Amino acid sequence: MKREQYTHKEEKDHQQQPPGRVGEENPIRENLQATAELHKHTERKVSTQQRAIEKATAFLGRPRFLFIILLATSLWMLINTLLAALHLPDFDPPPFLWLQGILSLGSVLMATMILITQNRQDQVTARNRHLDLQASLLIDQKVSKLIEMADEQRREQSPGKKPDPKIEAMKEPIDPHQVLSSLSQLLKEAGEEKI
Predict the structure, then answer these.
(1) Among 17-26, 44-53, 183-192, where is mean pLDDT lowest?
(2) Alpha helices of the chain — where are they, by DSSP H?
(3) Which of 4, 108, 120, 161 sits a CA distance of 20 to 30 A from 65?
């Protein structure tokens, strides 16, 4: 029993700690911490109203909410139908105009809350895409520099060798404007071929 508990604790610790030796700098842990800090920074800027709307939207997106709406609507209709059948005063006789109004208002409010939540998610996604693009461009520049340095070393060790055209092409960092222009042109040509 003790061994099972100890193994479970070891497994839990292992899941919490990224790979790497204790006491050494760990790039994985550093990257995870940087990512967590970016997330915390973004979440600190969220207003109280935005948080409340996002909590409500999260609840609206659960299956439980669907069942609550179905149950409430069914009970409303059943109670009013039974009251009418028993010749007792009902609060919303068929065709249930009050129910229709309440459901319509609820639909408008839900759609608005979903749009508000989606707008913030779109902003976060756009920021992350920009960050990814910046990181990709920086990585491309570093890789191009490394290829250039390795090629210089190869030339120093083998002065008579001809330059490799692939290596020469890879030395140049990517120009995002040129890539976008080429991609647009290729997509345009592909679209014309389909017609």
Answers:
(1) 17-26
(2) 2-16, 27-44, 48-60, 63-85, 97-157, 165-171, 176-194
(3) 120
